[in-house]
Amino acid sequence: MTNETEIEPTVETIPTKPHKRFYIAIAIITVMLLTWILLRPGVFTVQPIGAIPEGITIIYHSRSREMPFFSSPDGLCLQINGSVSLLCRITALSAATDLSDRIILRLPYNHWAYLQSTGGLEFDK
Predict the structure, then answer these.
(1) Which of 20, 27, 35, 69 is found 20 to 30 A from 87 (Cα to Cα)?
(2) Sign of torsion, CA 83 84 85 90?
(3) So where are the chain's domains?
(4) Whole-model pTM?
């Protein structure tokens, strides 16, 4: 008999460091969230009417707390009066002129954004 002792291999656990990609993803999400909070963007949609035959969707910054994220002349009329009329639409369109110096992007009319602003209701043009 020999005095040989068997040596069993040991598995040493090395503490794992979080991946660099994880930190990059967290940084990107944080920057996007801060940008969103600071810019407070909004979407203003004007459906096709006589004055604007193609309609328009505007993405703007510095949305006021009273203005919903998705808004439109019809949506503002519903919010203020509970109904939509031609006179109210004209008044609410003036809100779009107030946005002219805060426009980030002008897009073609987006029907989905319009429906979001009116709670899914459609009104005659």
Answers:
(1) 69
(2) positive
(3) 42-117
(4) 0.70
Q: What's the rounded Cα separation, in Å, for the pair 30 and 44?
A: 26
**CA end-to-end distance (rounded Å), the chain:** 102
Please give the C-alpha separations between residue 65 and each of 62, 68, 79, 82, in angstroms, as whole numbers.
Answer: 9, 7, 14, 20
Residues in CB range of 14: below 8 A, 6 or more apart: none
Contact predicate 74/83, CB 8 Å: no
Q: What are the tens digits of pLDDT across the range 91-121?
A: 888 877 888 899 999 999 999 999 999 999 9
Residue 94 CB neighbours (<10 A) = 9
Residue pLDDT, tens place only, 28-55:
999 999 888 888 899 999 999 877 889 9
- Stated as kind and residue range, the H or E segment containing 12 is none
